[in-house]
Predict the structure.
Amino acid sequence: MTDTLSFSIYFRKFSEKKQFVEFPPGLHVIYGESGVGKTNFIRQLIGLPIAGRTNFTLDIHTKPQPVQMILQNPESQIVSPTIKAELAFSLECHEKDTDKIQTRLKEIKKELLFSTDWNRHPITLSGGEKELLNIVTGFSTPAKFIVIDDGLSFLNNRYKREIVGRINEYINRNNLIVLWFTSEYSDLQFGVTASELTLASFANVKSYRSLRYPKGKMKPGFMSVAAENLTFGYDDIPLLEKVTMRGKNIRSLGVVGLNGSGKTTLAAIMLGLLKPTEGRLEMSLGTNSKPDVGYLDQFPERLLGADTPDNFLADLEAEGKLTPNRRTQCLKTLLNYRVNWELVKDRYALDIPWSTLRLALIIILTHCEYDVLILDEPTFGLGWEQRLILYRYLHKILLNKHLIIVSHDNEFVNCCCDFIFSLDDQSLIRKEKVYLG
């Protein structure tokens, strides 16, 4: 059995030569913008049919077995109705001895970085907690080669560093090869090797550099948000406890906090989807005591369901949220921001690249007649260039719109928000200058 992964990669449009690549045991990080073919790279590595066209071909020479894959969408990997059952399921797939399963189950419960009711349904976890669960179940298998498809992108920096430490422990203990494909450039710092995949090349990254957004100022806003002893939970699972904050003259509010701190729950209460069990939350915009609030879910496919983007646009028009004139402007804006409407309008959400769907829906919603727009994890799955595109677009719409950005991506929030509320310590910070320009 081989301990190394080796393959040749051939970019047929850009080079006549095949490039030989070899990875020994260790954590190897591969960065790529969304759309360069990371998922097709993974599918070729593990022997699955590719989806659509790709600019490169892989010839596999040596590959450790068995192989385990951790998916980009954390919900796609979860199959069981409780967290305990999900942890046990991965063990039961590879072990028949019930005593060994129970012993190992007790061990891997301790490996989760959050405490919870083991009978809780995984769907009620935050995006980051789902990723942590998937990492633990994925590494509990007897795999020798593990591929992570952008499977840590919901994690804040603290949890990411902790889970990378755990992954390195797994690697050292079991002599594993782990390839971590990511759309976050800063993740390159975590690998024993760092590589970048583009449409035309696969190359080593010799030195990691810090990337920064441009600097500038933000126009003052008219939004006010006030919460007093805001509390919400499911049964005996508290998600928000006595949250109190008050801010006014807000243009763009950032909501940050550790994974599982209740960011998405707070957004759902702001939207009116959830009712607090205790306390109250009030939002206003100037003289409008009840602003019309729109929302982009952290899983954007939920907004479309089984529908298409074109039908979604038609529904917004029928509801009076999108005028014919604004629709025309919206389609022009989509084209200006590299979204080919003709290619995506009649496709279902799961058939559209996540980054394309996310950017398209943000552009559509910002052309609608909403007073305030909540964006939940808007940078998830976006590479650096795509984050810059989103950043510059939000700068333009913030001249007239008001936003609430819910995110673990503190740098993006710091650069796009004039007020930042942390659920970790319930602090509200007003920034004199934001990095928007």
Q: What stands out?
A: The chain has a mean pLDDT of 89. The first strand starts at residue 5 and ends at 10. DSSP finds 14 helices and 18 strands in the chain.
